[in-house]
Design a protein that fits this description.
This protein is mainly alpha-helical. It has a domain of 53 residues. Helix 1 packs antiparallel against helix 4. The relative contact order is 0.11. Keywords: Cell membrane, Membrane, Protein transport, Translocation, Transmembrane, Transmembrane helix, Transport. Its main location: membrane. Involved in protein export. Participates in an early event of protein translocation.
């Protein structure tokens, strides 16, 4: 199970790095905005952009793969086998003694009494 989780993690990291690279290489929609207003082709600025090219389709595939791996890691991380030892700090903590008074455990006994200095004046 740990091998499968590591494999999914590697695929997620590779898809994230690929997606970052693809987004940085793509040409933005607003890059031609200044030229569109001056050249009379402003209708194409707010109109349909046409079919998606190779880079945008590749980015969509990488994003889908990234989110699928994220969901798989969340599922695998939350469902552990029954016999596995817990790595939770709270479950490993020593139980608090029941005979200890609550005031001493809260630290209220260490606070000096504010009324004592006022009475001695």
């Amino acid at each position: 199970m740990q091998v499968f989780m590591n494999l999914v993690l590697v695929v997620q990291l590779l898809s994230a790095l690929t997606m970052i690279g693809l987004v940085l290489v793509q040409h933005g929609k607003g890059a031609d905005m200044g030229a569109s207003f001056g050249s009379g082709a402003s209708g194409s600025l707010f109109g349909a952009t046409g079919s998606a090219n190779f880079l945008s389709r590749s980015t969509a595939i990488c994003a889908t793969l990234f989110f699928t791996c994220t969901l798989a890691l969340a599922y695998l991380g939350s469902h552990r086998s029954v016999g596995a030892t817990s790595d939770n700090v709270l479950e490993r903590a020593a139980p608090v003694a029941a005979s200890a008074p609550a005031v001493a455990a809260s630290g209220a006994a260490a606070i000096p009494d504010a009324a004592a200095p006022a009475a001695s004046r």
